């Protein structure tokens, strides 16, 4: 049985190389197809991952869940998502992304349906933990696909554009979940995204392709004459499990640096995704839809800046850390503004949420790209999973930590903890200022 599953998920085999005329005609079409399908697929993943937070207050009221209970559900899914992202990343480097990503979407849809039908805390805890695990099947195959179809000198710009899938999916989920819950009940915040995910699963299975070689095309390095540093002769060499995990990741000091930075960046990012709607409802007078729209504002705030900063990082010879540092500094002052803004000025809070979204998503994207810059394209999924694991640990820390601080002390104390995390991220990014893939 296990062997059958492995064979089914195995990468698509190479086929005979097409003529030069066919290569020049087909390569741009397949590159767009990969970018488009992974973009839409990952957008859909977000609809079934972050749909709990916008309605967590309403679920708590309906089922008598405390802030600690809500925090536990947020924490367990962050932990399992981190573990899933690392494990699935290693598996995705040895799998066909078309099948891998489609199956993940199908499984998350089933878990969302199950969550909506359940009404018991421990069942919800288990289901959302399992959902975090299969959500790890989303990003790694995207990284693998883009790493095989786009070369090193265009990664910043390409990934910047692709990365707005985070913002569109993350922004829409607040609106979809809150409107569905308002019209039909909190359960539909999971039913509606689940239906969309089922459709997305079929689409990915039909539309996405594996490597260029599986379509009779040369590697992208050959097509664009753009080779990673010191890899011109072995850029297509397959890596063993030990090389993937130990040599390319665990013994790579740059991957460790980006991973630790990502821990604090995710505290910043998810503090407003996981707790922002609840914070605004409890302290600033927002309603259910207002809380949902705060997530939309946060996410959509990062669309333009992510594309711009990705392009800038390419123009500065791949200095992703430098650009990330310049983005994190304004976030500190935006959180101070939220802390000092009194109730009754909800529009100011919305503006500050948008400002944080404007500056937090470029580092979220660039840290992942930096991980790709300092490892082999054959280990993209593993490196991304490892960096993502630390990000999920950061989400876990804030998910549970902010619940404890807000319950036992105040929301002001919780915001103070976020400010400290922001300062630590700034300090660590200083050490990445001069790092570049071709430096």
Describe the structure.
The chain has 439 residues and is mainly alpha-helical. It has 2 domains: 17-218, MFS general substrate transporter like domains (Growth Hormone, Chain: A); 241-438, Up-down Bundle (Growth Hormone, Chain: A), CATH 1.20.1250. It contains 19 helices and no strands. The chain has helices at 2-9, 20-47, 56-63, 67-92, 97-117, 121-135, 139-149, 155-184, 188-207, 220-224, 241-250, 253-274, 276-283, 288-300, 303-315, 320-340, 346-373, 380-408, 411-430. Helix 8 (155-184) runs antiparallel to helix 15 and helix 8 packs across helix 17 (346-373).
What structural category characterises the helix and strand content? mainly alpha
CATH topology of the largest domain: Growth Hormone, Chain: A
Which class of the largest domain in CATH terms?
Mainly Alpha
Taken together, the total number of domains comes to 2
**Residue share in helix:** over 70%
Supply the key terms.
single chain; mainly alpha; Growth Hormone, Chain: A; 0% strand; Sugar-P_transporter_CS; glucose 6-phosphate:phosphate antiporter activity
Q: Nutshell version of this structure?
A:
The chain has 439 residues and is an all-alpha fold. 77% of the residues lie in helices and 0% in strands.
């Amino acid at each position: 049985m296990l062997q059958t599953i492995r064979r089914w998920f195995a990468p698509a085999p190479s086929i005979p190389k097409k003529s030069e005329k066919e290569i020049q005609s087909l390569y741009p079409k397949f590159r767009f197809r990969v970018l488009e399908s992974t973009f839409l697929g990952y957008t859909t993943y977000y609809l079934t991952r972050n749909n709990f937070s916008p309605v967590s207050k309403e679920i708590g009221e309906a089922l008598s869940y405390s802030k600690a209970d809500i925090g536990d559900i947020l924490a367990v899914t962050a932990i399992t998502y981190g573990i899933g992202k690392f494990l699935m990343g290693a598996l995705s480097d040895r799998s066909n992304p078309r099948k891998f990503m489609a199956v993940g979407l199908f499984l998350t849809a089933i878990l969302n349906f199950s969550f909506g039908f359940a009404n018991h805390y421990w069942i919800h805890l288990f289901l959302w933990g399992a959902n975090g695990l299969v959500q790890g099947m989303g990003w790694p195959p995207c990284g693998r696909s883009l790493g095989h179809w786009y070369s090193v000198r265009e990664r910043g710009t390409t990934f910047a554009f692709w990365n707005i899938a985070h913002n569109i999916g993350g922004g829409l989920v607040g609106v979809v979940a809150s409107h569905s819950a308002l019209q039909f009940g909190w359960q539909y915040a999971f039913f509606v995204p689940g239906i969309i995910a089922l459709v997305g699963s079929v689409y990915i299975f039909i539309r996405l392709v594996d490597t260029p070689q599986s379509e009779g095309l040369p590697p992208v390095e050959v097509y664009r004459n753009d080779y990673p540093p010191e890899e011109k002769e072995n850029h297509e060499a397959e890596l063993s499990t030990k090389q993937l995990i130990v040599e390319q990741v665990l013994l790579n000091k740059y991957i460790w640096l980006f991973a630790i930075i990502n821990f604090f960046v995710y505290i910043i990012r998810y503090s407003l995704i996981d707790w922002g709607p609840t914070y605004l409802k409890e302290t600033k007078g927002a309603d259910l839809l207002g809380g949902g729209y705060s997530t939309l504002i946060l996410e959509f705030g990062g669309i333009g800046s992510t594309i711009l900063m990705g392009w800038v990082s390419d123009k500065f010879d791949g200095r992703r850390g430098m650009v990330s540092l310049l983005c994190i500094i304004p976030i500190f002052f935006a959180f101070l503004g939220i802390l000092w803004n009194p109730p009754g000025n909800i529009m100011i809070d919305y503006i500050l949420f948008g400002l944080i979204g404007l500056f937090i998503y470029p580092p979220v994207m660039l840290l992942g790209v930096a991980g790709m810059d300092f490892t082999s394209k054959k280990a993209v999924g593993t490196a991304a999973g490892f960096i993502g694991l630390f990000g999920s640990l950061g989400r876990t820390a804030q998910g549970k930590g902010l619940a404890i601080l807000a319950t036992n002390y105040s929301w002001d104390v919780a915001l103070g903890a976020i400010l400290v995390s922001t300062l630590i991220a700034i300090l660590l990014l200083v050490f990445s200022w001069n790092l570049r893939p071709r430096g």
